[in-house]
Input
Amino acid sequence: MAHLAVDVTGLTHHYNTTSTQPILKDLSLTLDKGQTLALIGASGSGKSTLLNIIGGLEPVQQGSVSVFSKPLQSADDAALTQLRRNTIGIVYQSFNLIPTLSVTDNIKLPMALDGVARDEQRTRIEQLLEKIGLDHRSNAFPDALSGGEQQRVAIARAVVHRPALLLADEPTGNLDATTGQQVMHLLQDLVAEHNTTLLMVTHSSTVAGYADRVLTMSDGTLKEHSEHASSANTW
Amino acid sequence: MVAALLFKSSWRFHRQHPLQLVLSLAGIILGVGIVTSVLITNHSAVRAFSLSSEALYGKATHQIVAANGLPDEAAAAFIKTHSRLVIAPVIESDVALNGELATLIGLDPFREAQFARLQPNAHQNASDNSAESGSAALLNSNYPLWASEATAQRMDLTVGDTVDLNGTEATLTGLFSTASRAASDGLLVTDISVAQTLGNKLGSVDRLELILDDEVATTLASTLPAQWRLQATTQRQSTMKAMTRGFQINLTAMSLLALLVGMFLIHNTMTFAVLQRREVFATKRLVGISTRGLFSIVIAEAFVFSAVASIVGLIAGIFIAGKLLALTTQTINDLYFVLHVQQIHLSPWVLLTGLVLGIGSSILATILAAREAASDSAANARRRSAIEEKTATVLPWLMYVGLACLLIGAALAWIPSQSLMLGFAALMIVFVGYGLSIPWLSQRLLDLTRHTLGGFSVLLLLALGSLTDNMSRTGLAIAALTVAVAATLGVDLMTGSFRHSVDTWLQQTLQSDLYITFGDTDGTGRSRASEFDDTWLTELETLAAVEEISTGILVELVTNFDTFDTLVLQPSAGSEQSYEWIDENDSWNTFLTTTSVMVSEPMANKYQLSTGSDITLFTETEGDVVFKVAGVYRDYGSSHGRMVMNRSTYDDFWSNPRIGSIGINVTPGAELQPVIDRVRHHLASTDVAARVRDNISIHRESLDIFDRTFAVTRVLRWLTMGVAFIGIFSALLAMHLERARDFAVMRASGGSRIQLRSMIMLQSIAMGITAGLLAIPLGWMMSEMLIHIINVRSFGWSMNAILPRRAIPETLALALGSAALACVYPAWRLGRHSLVDDLRTE
Ligand SMILES: Nc1ncnc2c1ncn2[C@@H]1O[C@H](COP(=O)(O)OP(=O)(O)OP(=O)(O)O)[C@@H](O)[C@H]1O
Ligand SMILES: [Mg+2]
Output
């Protein structure tokens, strides 16, 4: 299975041990390297939960989850940290930038935590800033940026360490249509550049249209979407 | 309706942050507890004093005293000539009862009835069912010894028990009770003759007590023999109360400092509670709740919490007071006079004061936070940084106000006054002023560090960044820690300097190698006197290896302004070295050759005396005589003040051949123990109870007393540190609660647990070091003020300030240590919390 970026089998997840109804029920999913997958589904159906489990933020309760052949269910905290440093990048709906760090420092954060050499840090940041079109705002603080700008910084932060798997939870959810489109283009560019696997959650069918594959979450399991909608590019 | 909803919402918030709430309550509880305990302790001591005075003096309104007691015959004659007046002779001595300090009162049973000071215990003394009422029943035994019920109960004694009284056996023949049971703890009663024997006071009584109205008193005063003095009982009491006032004010000030630190804490928590809910508040305002409504809800919260916490604090205070009272009574016994009562007296006023201080300071500390909740524009409140931006503009202003306070404090300190209150006011204002400048100062310090070191590590940048960006909270925590650490340093420097001075002084004062004291078994250091013939003394001086001797007796001399313990000294050649002069003069010669006395520094300070001043003394032979002040000497033995008089001068005006102590200088190089043995042998030829001690053990004992004196201060200091610790702990916790999402983002971006924990450590260390550095100047200022203003004004003692080399590293270590300890829980918690939950909070 070396060609699989994500391999989920028999995943079951409860939030409350008291509630009998699981959020995820015996869910299985495979995702090829370099593929772009959109996850849609009703609010509260468990999309974010699945994403968080794959990102190693939420523990695997039952079943197995592998990311690039690394089993998460048996990974300890150090292994998960390592996975997040080397393999995974995450983009959130609410940007989640650190308000006390400047744009540059926010982007620098994953590399600094990983101990990437300073020169290397600088060149990557310069490249990314140019790509997201914010080289003139490199010293600004998140407070002073618009929503779209903030999300572009967040995306830069999520890809700066060149992750093989990018997870995005409603990356355009807080943005208006035009801005959302810009952000999606950026995301697409970046993913294409390094053949990154992208797993994103969205409510927007337009956004889903960017994906190679669309899955619908309901009743704790996934259903493959029948029609392919990559051409539906209207916002 | 709306109010109920608002309350429900508040309640839910606090239930979700229980630790935060508990910490803030703990801050108020400790603050109120400390203040109340000191108030209760002081009140209890004062009350104990008046109760025991009541027990001692009964209905007596006046007393007649003389410099050296009233001779038996003269007293008897006086009573006979004034047969219409109610008069009773009294002897009062400190004795050791089964090794415990007690007051033995010698009374004339037939003259006691109208004074109503004691009732025989009917049940215990049933055997003497005589018709004689009250104390006359005492006569039923030829060696009567009655103990108060309180004493008997505490020491587990019953009538018929054999007790040890100053080293001799005696039988307890009865019990008595007084109007206030607790007040008589430590009181023993016997008849005059037994008291005279036990107290080494054969041939005289200490005083005559009288029940007089003022008119009779005035006429009587004019007919008294020259060396007798009539004084009102209350006058004596107020003198004694005044003695302990300085000490009590010291304690109160320390406790207020603790409350000040507690206020920082309350402010911190309430601000946190408001900050955490700023969006809730903003939403509430959007749905139409008035600004005033929000303001009131925050104040109401503070009121409810502080009321609950203050009540618990009062209970804690009562508990702490129990511990403090024992320490305080010990100090009063060591320094001032014997006070036995150890019972806590709760007055409603004291409790009310504690409650008002607790609630009042909480609400005061909350006002800023409440205004924050109310005044923010709805849109602004949603912005995370809005409040910090506001803080950034407020900090310089706080600093200016603080600076102004510092200047005012310094100005107050410069006012040449004797007022202790003024001194403390200056100290407090300096503290508040410095405290207000701390957030600004620490922001500068942290910013500087961030700019110089931040380039090296994003972790450091992050750690310091969130400190400076949360100044509204971290600034206050640093301020609280700084104030507490500074108070610790200030008190340490003061007691250290003080102890050093006392040590040097003892070294100098204890010039003789050996000291013999007579009847001095009670541990008060007040020696009883004995009479020796000259041959015995000459023989003592010719013992092998005895080089020379000096003798002394401690007497009470009455001046035109107060009564002072006076050492009457027959000096030896080495005695001159015992005294360090405050002003340089030919003092020793004057002392030896003229009608003069030396006065101690506290006495000189209190009564504006200096070398050459005049003092009128009541003498036995010539009544009022003017003495010159030969010199002012350093003395840490009594804050009331004392004098030294040359023996030959004394013998000119008083006829008291007794001596109370002998100082022996041993031939240099000779071993002490054989000399001690020879002296003991020589003493055996007399039947006087005596103690022989070398100067080293006296020195050590005196330092022990000194350390006991400051035991209370130390306890208070640690309690204050406790409050500050809670402050920094809850500030760190609050900050990390607020920053939980940032931490989660860092984790999600590849941060390891260790990296995040080290970040929290870094923050704690930065706060600790900042507080430690800022505490050093404040602590030093405090010690300077304590040494040069407070101590001089409350005790009359001057001393040299010394700064031990270890003080600075110790201060830094204390600040750093408590900050590091405070971060243990937040760091531990960090690894346990669900990342997803934290990411969701927005
Ligand atoms: N920490 C938690 N504790 C308890 N229940 C939770 C928790 N997080 C999520 N849930 C519940 O689990 C279910 C799935 O939540 P999840 O966030 O995965 O949904 P979602 O599909 O992402 O919804 P949305 O599209 O609204 O973001 C929801 O019913 C939610 O209430
Ligand atoms: Mg979701």
